[in-house]
From TrEMBL:
GO cellular component labels: RAVE complex
Species for this entry: Pseudocercospora musae
GO biological process, one term: vacuolar acidification
Domain RAVE complex protein Rav1 C-terminal, residue spans: 518-1106
Positions of the UniProt region annotated as Disordered: 1189-1224
Signal peptide segment: none
Name of the protein in question: RAVE complex protein Rav1 C-terminal domain-containing protein
Basic and acidic residues bias spans: 1200-1214
Superkingdom of this protein's organism: Eukaryota
Length: 1224
């Protein structure tokens, strides 16, 4: 059933396809029709149960599906109505329009046959909506006009739709099944012919109201193969008259017939004095017209074995109009003999007959128009004129292949539509210019070219077929016997000879298994598996580098990288998807096609930035009345779609208009570039980012190379002064990559606020290549943040600078967003100024900073010494400040701010803060002066108790539980602290209040960093959730607080379990690991390679080179002994002395380890040795050296004794010297 208006299906217009294969045409003599509606040419043909309507060689307007196979189709050239027939019924389709361009057809009438044994074979439109249906037993006439208002129309309900039903006006039995039946242009005559019939029967209508006819027969020497009426001239006025009127004297009606004797006969109606209805006017020998045809040599020239010929006719009016259009094309001063020849032919008013032999030869002849009015003294030329003869045409058919052709002229173009009956059947659309086609001297190959070929070709001829060998899913081993739902064989890109099976289980685990060919059977060796948490995936597709799967409800898309197992993309779809197909144009250039009912979205894999996978192309068949059944990729990167009987081929180009503005700017379109090939587009997406990209500059600062970032900013500012759009700009700004990587100090950096402001003005005026407008804004923020950080390089270490950079960058980005400039309002009505939310990456780095106090002073000063808990929680201050005194000072300030947060001040808000600080006396003093509070007297008296007594603790706990019932959770936690029950207080804060950060702060202050309460909170709540989320930073921080330095370092490099995302393996984890490591890790080598791959996928190749070139592995032999500095548990003038400077210690105590670039081989494990023998050998060697040295010194001793040098050893640096270093 066809849909209703195509406009109601989707807002997406149908795509312009490269090729269309609507389906193999039905092997019927009336399978195709061409007509004009609203000044546009349409071609319709039937393919099985489907009707296809096209208006160009590769433009399908609509496809309509019926319940039964169709056998015939006809079009009413005046109204645009279509009629199609199956063997038992016929339908009328009426055109509907929307605007001037949108046209579609809908079923309007159902035509029922009264004779159930009749099988329809031919349709023909008459005048005033009459339709003739010729069948195997009867000839029936239907009226398709508006029904009479006096009677109710008869209706039929089919497929939940109601249609008006019509029966025939009259029926006439026939002696044999009719092969062809055609109304004449005036509908006064009907010509019919049966199979293998030598007679054409002419029915002359004696009455248009009743089925009254007289008959005559046109004899032929052989079986008639085709008959066709000459259409009326476009300038003629149609008049409805009977066949015996004087209409014939004004313009005769002409009938062309072709028999198997190879002759085309022209019949015309006679005048009032002629006894015959039709008389023979002339004939053309189609075989003799092409005497040198290979078919003549093969078949001979006898009448019994005359070869096949194919003929088409062009009426005089069409030919003349086409010639005039060709003559109207300017010659630009050139001489065209073809146009002169055509001008002569047009002057003769010729009806053109074109004969083809199917072997590349054609011959065109002209008959002086039979309907042309002449003066009586002007004789009529009966003999045909020869127009053109050509060989070497591209129009060829296999020998003796039946075919039916039709042609028309549109402007100065000649069109030929040929329906060939073969094994598959095909409809070919040929095009050429009128001047070239009818030229007496043009080469045959230049006359016509095939514009389209509609056939039932297999999809494998166009698309890459997915290998689906017989895989026994039960043979694939899985963890916990998880059932395998889908398995797809792929070829490894690194080793094309090695086959691999990518499978997905019921629980959503994607696994890769190598295929091992054994003698007895094929086995599978598991290689890797990755979790997705998509239970029972509905659709699964995989390539060599990635896999895509749809959820069970087909509304969620997940894409997994098979190299590192990262979950690269998760998307909630607006509609139900039904198809997935993966494609890799070249290594690391991946695409996935997501198919819906009528739309296919192509997603491309980009760099690891905001969105890894983005929609870059949309292919639509919406409005065509079809639904997608299969989606496949072509070898070049196009798409091959299957819908209904048809196949649609989409080219491998991307239209930049379909991309969003940011993506268009990012791929760098050249001026005037309207198409991008898919392979080229993938390369542009994956190319390295230039050093002026904001993500690159920001990550350079995060990696501790602030001086390098400032150098690049200064160089960019200088080059932009002389840059204009279209100029070449070096991706590294003409800097030496080695020098950029090795730059450490700020001595050579000369950039300040003035240069930064100048650069921002240049960025407002000029557009940098490969940057979107949003990237331009981010670049200005990064420049300001980097310049701001430069002012603090003498007072903060690298970890603190990283924290400060991220904090400042978020502030700048927020200020640029005018919509959020005034902060946010919480549901309780409390207004908060904007505070940057620091992630656990910055919190963990700040925790290991040795300059926490200067960093803390900057943050407190920014908040005007009025920091509240909202700001402290977002900044993570209570998590990264390690000194208890500084943490207590911050917490006391939070208590004061909370106390003054309401008017009048409320001691209830400050209770939890002061009790966590063990300052009950301060809290009591606040209550004593809070005379305005209704709970002042009772609370003050209660706080006067001695809570070291059991009775007072019990009373405090009772109050805490009562407050829990009233949902005053923070106040309840305060009473638990008053009862000296920190575990309950922390459980309330972490549970009911859902504020784990506050619970951690209270546990640190009330119990201490080494307390079991804090450890229990971290181990029971924080660590499990961090493992579930795969948060390396939070896990490392937890192990550092738990005094587990080895685990704190190891968690930064060890592989994570569960769902993995590339952000979990961000390369900055290696920078902290390098500070914390005390011993070599078995996972260090893989972590470095993994970080380099992530940086490369982010497009930051400069930083990837920095890691692999400068990374130094710490071997077990050269491992430095841990330095045990005195634990002061405090700050000395702002410098934390709790943790030693591991980087400095490793530089002093350990020799320089080998470079990472020395070899990419995995470090070899140390060989087992006999420790006792090694010690004895080493001792003997040292003893021999000392003995030799002593003897040499005695022999060459000077007369005066020199002072011995002090032994070399590590000396703890003085705190004051460190203060001098940081400018304090």
């Amino acid at each position: 059933m066809p849909s209703t208006s195509p406009g109601s299906l989707s807002l997406d217009a149908p795509t312009a396809f490269l090729h269309i294969l609507p389906g193999a045409p039905t092997e019927s003599l009336q399978a195709t029709v061409t007509f004009i509606y609203r000044f546009k040419r349409y071609v319709a043909y039937i393919s099985g149960k489907q009707l296809n309507i096209l208006n160009a060689p590769n433009t399908l307007v609509q496809a309509i599906t019926f319940e039964h196979d169709l056998v015939a189709i006809a079009a009413d050239a005046k109204t645009g109505k279509l009629s199609v027939a199956s063997q038992k019924e016929a339908w009328i389709l009426e055109p509907l329009t929307e605007g001037w361009t949108k046209v579609w057809w809908e079923k309007s009438l159902l035509l029922r046959q009264e004779d159930e044994g009749n099988e329809a074979r031919w349709l023909s439109w008459g005048t005033e909506g009459e339709l003739l249906l010729a069948g195997s037993r009867v000839l029936t006439l239907f009226s398709t006009g508006a029904a009479s208002r006096t009677t109710s129309p008869r209706t039929s309900a089919l497929d939940e739709e109601t249609y008006e039903e019509r029966i025939g006006l009259w029926s006439k039995p026939v002696a044999s099944p009719i092969r062809q039946a055609e109304f004449s242009p005036t509908s006064s005559l009907i010509a019919t012919c049966s199979d293998y019939d030598r007679l054409v029967k002419i029915w002359r209508r004696l009455s248009f109201e009743d089925g009254l006819f007289d008959h005559t027969y046109l004899p032929h020497p052989g079986a008639v193969t085709h008959l066709q009426w000459r259409p009326m001239n476009d300038t003629s006025k149609e008049r409805r008259t009977s066949g015996i009127s004087r209409r014939h004297e004004e313009e005769p009606e002409v009938l062309y017939t072709i028999a198997n004797d190879g002759l085309l006969r022209v019949w015309r109606t006679g005048g009032t004095h002629h006894l015959d209805i039709l008389i023979l006017h002339t004939s053309i020998d189609l075989v003799a017209a092409i005497p040198d045809s290979p078919s003549v040599a093969a078949k001979g020239t006898s009448n019994a074995t005359r070869p096949a010929r194919y003929a088409v006719m062009i009426p005089c009016t069409q030919f003349t109009a086409a010639v005039n259009a060709a003559l109207g094309i300017p010659l630009d001063g050139k001489i065209s003999h073809s146009k002169e020849f055509l001008k002569e032919m047009a002057s003769k008013d010729l009806d053109v007959i074109i004969a083809f032999d199917g072997q590349g030869r054609m011959s065109a002849w002209g008959l002086q128009s039979i309907g042309h009015k002449r003066r009586p003294e002007t004789p009529t030329q009966v003999e045909p004129y020869h127009i053109a003869h050509a060989e070497g045409l591209l129009v060829k058919l296999p020998n003796s292949t039946p075919a039916i052709s039709t042609c028309w002229c549109q402007d100065d173009r000649f069109h030929l539509l040929s329906h060939a009956f073969g094994k598959r059947g095909e409809v070919s659309w040929w095009q050429g210019t009128v001047e070239t086609f009818f030229s007496p001297s043009a080469p045959g190959a230049d006359r016509l070219s095939r514009a389209s070929n509609w056939t039932g070709a297999a999809l494998s001829e166009w698309a890459i077929t997915q290998q689906h060998s017989s895989i026994d899913l039960r043979a694939i081993s899985t963890k916990d016997d998880d059932e395998v739902l889908h398995a797809i064989p792929v070829t490894l890109p690194s080793d094309p000879s090695q086959n691999c099976i990518v499978s997905v289980t019921r629980s959503g685990v994607v696994a890769c298994s190598l295929v091992l060919d054994g003698k007895a059977q094929i086995s599978f060796e598991p290689v890797a598996s990755y979790e997705t948490e998509i239970s029972e995936p509905g659709v699964f597709a995989a390539g060599a580098e990635f896999a895509a799967l749809l959820s069970q409800d087909l509304r969620s898309l997940t894409i997994v990288d098979l190299t590192d197992g990262y979950l690269e993309h998760q998307q909630q779809l607006n509609n139900t998807a039904t198809h997935l197909n993966c494609f890799t144009s070249s290594p690391r250039h991946n695409f996935v096609a997501v198919g819906y009912d009528t739309v296919v979205d192509i997603l491309a894999q980009g760099s690891y930035q905001d969105r890894v996978w983005q929609t870059v192309k949309r292919v639509s068949i919406a409005g065509l009345g079809l639904q997608l059944e299969r989606v496949s990729w072509t070898a070049e990167g196009g798409l091959a779609l299957t819908a209904g009987n048809g196949k649609f081929i989409v080219g491998p180009e991307i239209d930049p208009k379909q991309l969003d503005a940011a993506l268009r700017q990012r791929v760098g379109l050249a001026e005037g570039e309207t198409k991008i090939r898919l392979r080229d587009f993938a390369q542009r997406l994956k190319r390295p980012l230039p050093v002026w990209h904001p993500s690159v500059l920001a990550d350079i600062v995060r990696h501790g190379h602030c001086a390098t970032a400032l150098t690049l900013i200064a160089k960019l500012s200088r080059q932009l002064k002389f840059y204009s759009s279209g100029d070449d700009l070096s991706p590294v700004l003409d800097e030496n990559v080695e020098d950029l990587i090795r730059q450490k100090g700020f001595a050579s950096v000369s950039i300040g606020k003035d240069m930064a402001d100048e650069l921002k003005e240049l960025l407002d005026e000029k557009e940098l290549p490969l940057l979107s407008s949003e990237d331009h804004k981010r670049l200005t923020h990064v420049v300001d943040a980097a310049v701001y950080v430069k002012d603090h390089v003498n007072g903060l270490d690298t970890n603190a600078l990283r924290y400060l950079f991220e904090w400042k960058l978020q502030l700048l980005q927020h200020r640029a967003d005018t919509g959020a400039a005034n902060g946010t309002t919480q549901p309780n009505g409390v207004h908060h100024e904007f505070v940057p939310e620091m992630q656990w990456r910055e919190i963990t780095l700040a925790y290991h900073s040795t300059t926490q106090q200067p960093l803390l002073d900057i943050l407190i000063l920014h908040h005007d010494n009025k920091m509240n808990w909202h700001a402290a929680r977002l900044l993570g201050v209570t998590s990264w400040v390690r000194d208890r005194q500084a943490l207590a000072s911050v917490f006391e300030q939070l208590g004061q701010t909370s106390y003054r947060s309401s008017q009048p001040p409320d001691p209830v808000n400050a209770s939890i803060y002061y009790l966590a600080l063990h300052k009950k006396a301060t809290l009591l003093a606040l209550w004593r002066i809070a005379t305005w509070h209704r709970e002042q007297r009772t609370t003050a008296n209660f706080l006067k108790r001695d809570f070291n007594q059991a009775e007072a603790k019990t009373a405090a706990k009772k109050n805490a539980y009562a407050l829990l019932g009233k949902r005053r959770f923070h106040y309840s936690a305060a009473f638990f602290l008053l009862a000296d029950d920190p575990a309950s207080a922390i459980n309330v804060l972490a549970g009911q209040c859902e504020d784990v950060s506050f619970a951690i702060a209270v546990a640190r202050l009330y119990c201490g960093d080494g307390s079991s309460t804090l450890y229990r909170l971290l181990e029971d709540r924080v660590v499990p959730q961090a493992k579930k989320d795969g948060n390396r930073w939070l896990l490392s921080w937890c192990h550092s607080v738990l005094n587990q330095p080895m685990k704190a370092a190891e968690i930064l490099v060890e592989p994570l379990r569960g769902i993995r995302k590339w952000t979990q393996d961000e390369p900055t984890t290696l920078l902290l690991y390098k500070q914390l490591r005390q011993a070599p890790s078995d996972n260090e080598y893989d972590a470095v390679l993994r970080a380099a791959r992530v940086l490369r996928k982010k497009g930051e190749w400069l930083l990837a080179l920095d890691i692999v070139q400068r990374w130094e592995f710490k071997s077990a032999q050269n491992q430095a002994r841990p330095v045990h500095a005195p634990r002061t548990n405090g700050l000395v003038d702002g410098i934390h002395q709790e943790l030693p400077d591991r980087t400095l210690a490793s530089q002093v105590l350990s020799p320089e380890p080998p470079s990472f670039l020395g070899g990419f081989a995995e470090p070899k494990a140390a060989q087992p040795v006999d420790e006792k023998a090694a010690r004895e050998a080493k001792a003997a060697e040292l003893l021999a050296k000392l003995k030799a040295k002593k003897e040499d010194s005695i022999a060459s001793a000077p007369p005066t004794e020199k002072k011995r040098a002090e032994p070399t050893q590590f000396k703890e640096p003085d705190a004051n010297s460190l203060l001098d270093t940081f400018g304090f």
